[in-house]
Amino acid sequence: QIKSGVALVRKCELDEMDVSESTPLNQRKHAYMKSLFNASTLDEVFDSDEYRELNDDFLGEEDSLQQLRDLVEFLATKNRSETSSTVYRSRGLVERGSKTVRGLGDGLDDILETLIEEEFPHTYAHVPNLSEVINVGDLKASRYSPGTWVEVRGADMKWRLRMITQVSKEAPPDYDWNDPQNKDKEPEWIYYYQTSDEKRVETDDLRSSEHGLVHLFGTRPWIWQQWACLRLEQILRFQEGHQDDFTSLDVDRCTKELWNKWLDDPQNKEFRDLFYDDRIGDFGRSELVEHIMTPFQLMGSIARKDEVWNFEDESEISIYTYLGLFGSGYTVPVLVVFIQVSVMAILFGTNTDFKRGILGKEHEEQVQSFPCLSMSIVVIMLYIIKVVPDLIVRFYNSVGTASTVHARLNHISEQLWLKDDDRIGQKIGLKMDTFMNTTYVTILYIINIYIIINADDPLDIILNSLALEFVETLDEVISDSAWWDGKKRWIRAGAVEIVLQNTLKASCLKSAIKFSEEFNIPDRVVSAMCNHHPTLFCDKAVAAEDVKNPQLMNKNELIKSRCVDIALRTRNLKALQEYKKSAVYFSSLEAMFRPCFPWVRNGGLFERHFMYRTWTR
To answer: Whole-model pTM?
Structure first.
């Protein structure tokens, strides 16, 4: 407390204190600040004449508590350029509270209780009203300030409404404070935010409340988001080296161009006038754009190989994770799960005591030899200090809120599963991935302990343990092989696609009632716009026509369409690969037999929703 108090005061610019009003109390405040600045211990402060005089003034005034609070708030005011928080006020009160509590009585506890509640509010103690979740006005250096209600993205990839309680800023790691060129130059501050539940939240994980934005702008921007997802899927390719490959295409720039084109459309004048209303301000406009662009920014982050999405060093991704993302490629997962279950069953079934129990023979009690008993104890100790903690961590990473890449992918898949917008293959893959990383591993090691206890040979104990260890990680070992996905392009493409799939509300796009409930548009109006089609925007025949309609293409698409026609006419395969998007499948068997099942609605990677591209609707 002494160090933090002295350091806090030394940050204050005492020369800037307003002493123009030469009142006795103001002068004593200034003298007290000077004494606190020069003090090396807290006792020196309490024993100083300045403190006693100032304390007597506080105790003699009727509003003594408010004066003490004003003095401490002065300290916080001097530091708000660095940290906006009530913690400085609470620190100042605590450092003086040990001496003033006798005079202030229970009033100090009331002040501290208020400050603590501001800094660490109860999660459900206050429900914000509509005005508190609407963020408008002018842009500031810090995007949000304490007391602002925002949505925070958690480790489970879900957005929750929280109130900002503290804002701090740090200079970039490569900023050199000793560089003469940086003298009198402000660094590009990196802001971190704190809520009642999260610490050091970055700006990318914050956004304004969707409820407040919908109240301001209506649901039209979210309808545009659905259209932009379909347009982006039409553009993206899985073709290494191509400019539209998912790792080469700048998703952020592409979607912002689509947004600006839509915003400037003459038919959108009503919304454009609302968007540029002075009452909205630059802050309100930027909050809407940031909110709508959040999923596209996430796709770009995955494709750009950001550190947060480092698939190369992720050890928990297995072949079942691929099945959960693509919903196809069953051959290898089925073979691997057969091997894993068979080895476990064979080892357990060949145990002598187990066979005797099955055959109903009299059980003969056996006592392990000393070498076997010693080896069993060693292996069980290994399980206690390594295997059990590993199992707990693996279970947490699979079904908890871990921040690993594998956990985030599973959380997105779970959101799709809850909305029932995933395919049957994705459902199977997600459940297999969860089961094989939790329940199966637990059963496997329980069986191994049973085998160890009943083993007759120390060598059998070691070999069985090694065999089960290998079998348990077989699915991760295969997924990490060079022949499976050496460059990690497939897993990145699957992650990008599943984010797009989670953003696209497919169930709403093929039901007038659900579309009406989601976007607050009368279902009869939506149905009429889609010619009363039973599946609304989902129409494979109309989509095939609209994609080839020149009137619905931009200049680049028109040129590509002409180039495709020329390449087909001249049978130029290389040109055709450049200008025409080819169907790509994760499963080789699916690519071979897909032409035999034309009624199956699966166009391959980045072509899953081609039947929704009904641009005329």
So the answer is: 0.78
